[in-house]
Amino acid sequence: MPKNIVQLNNRFIQDENQRRRYVDQERRKRNRFMGWVLILVILLFILPTYNLYQSYQTLLQRREQYSKLKEKYQTLSEEKVYQSDIATKLKDDSYAAKYARAKYSFSKEGEYIYTIPDLLPQ
């Protein structure tokens, strides 16, 4: 047996409905405000994170560049030592004559030169 439910429409019911609508409206405003605050906080965390990531990438590039420069420095120091050693040796006349004869195939009159590649100075 169905029962019919009748809603009362008096002043108290109208006031309660109006109060409930007002509370719902205030809750929506508060939720909207909190949503905007949440979006702002997310943006405030994204920007520093992006800058941190860029700084890390720059650091990695600088480390790679540092290692390359370190290798280049090592190579150049070895070359400098070699060049200074050659310069010191070339001050000796007998070594300079041997070096010129071997490197540039200079010879004395009546001499024949046979070059052996492994024996040439570099």
From TrEMBL:
Regions crossing the membrane: 33-53
Transmembrane in keyword set: yes
Keywords: Cell cycle, Cell division, Membrane, Transmembrane, Transmembrane helix
GO biological process entries: cell division
Top-level taxon of origin: Bacteria
Name of this protein: Cell division protein DivIC
